[in-house]
Specification:
The protein has 259 residues and is an alpha+beta fold. 33% of the residues lie in helices and 25% in strands. It folds into two domains: 101 residues, no CATH class; 151 residues, Immunoglobulin-like, CATH 2.60.40. The protein has three helices and nine strands.
Length: 259
């Protein structure tokens, strides 16, 4: 606001200057008028017929004369101050809104991963009546709405001492939204080679880790955005623990994380 104080001081100074100049010109005109009156005026030249000398002030004086000039400047400065205050208020509101949105940050996790057995005895040329798949929940444990833009998950069996690579983003899924505390049940199909092994082993053989089923991994990535449009990633890499018939997160921040 200091700039308005400076402008006010300048305008006030110019107004005072113009007023002093007008006053000075009026005094000079009065003196000239007085000196122009004859000592003994006759009837043909009475005193009231002698005009005052004309004061031709610069044109810019009118911008600072009281009351028209100074009133106009007062209105202009008031409007400028209101516009400036409105701008600051809008900026402050925008900052406050962004701060609020940043505190309402979503966070996605994957939980309740389960291998769902399908049809044990297949019929040649006929799809399984009950498909073999892996079910899981995508949950939002954050404080803001999560707009899930895309995701991709896999289940595979790997050779010993081999883990899934950190995958790049792979798209193709249908977007959906999760409110804070909300989850969504999803599923992916199993690859045919793993289905054939599980059909042979059954749950008992799977629990013992036969046929390298102790090397099963569920992994993938999801991309989501918060209310401000900021995009984040969530990645999972879970190793199947046969004795527990459940998945456990690997201790690797490059493969298991949520931004």
């Amino acid at each position: 606001m200091w700039k308005y104080l400076v402008l006010f001081a300048v305008i006030f100074g110019l107004a005072v200057y113009v007023a002093r100049q007008d006053e000075r010109a009026s005094l000079q005109a009065a003196e000239l008028h007085k000196s122009a009156i004859p000592a003994k005026p006759d009837e043909q030249h009475p005193q009231e017929n002698i005009p005052y000398p004309e004061w031709n002030s610069p044109s810019w004086y009118s911008f600072f004369r009281w009351p028209n000039g100074t009133t106009a400047w007062a209105i202009i400065l008031t409007l400028m101050a209101i516009a400036e205050q409105t701008k600051h208020t809008a900026r402050s509101a925008d900052v406050a809104n962004k701060t609020l949105i940043s505190t309402l940050r979503p966070k996605l996790i994957v939980r309740k991963i389960a291998i769902c057995e399908g049809t044990r005895i297949p019929v040649m040329g006929t799809p399984d009546a009950k498909p073999w798949e892996v079910e899981f929940d995508i949950a939002n444990i954050g404080t803001g709405t999560a707009n899930v833009l895309d995701y991709k998950f896999f289940i595979e069996r790997f050779e010993p001492d081999v883990q899934p690579d950190r995958i790049e983003y792979v798209g193709g899924s249908v977007p959906f939204t999760l409110e804070p505390g909300e989850d969504c049940r999803k599923s992916i199909p199993m690859p045919s080679d793993l289905i054939n092994i599980l059909r042979i082993l059954g749950r008992d053989g799977l629990s013992k880790g036969y046929q390298q089923t102790d090397r099963i991994y569920f992994y993938g990535i999801a991309e989501y955005a918060d209310a401000s449009g900021t995009k984040r990633n969530m990645a999972v890499c879970r190793h199947y623990i046969n004795s527990m018939l459940s998945f456990k997160a690997v201790d690797d921040p490059d493969r298991e994380y949520s931004e």
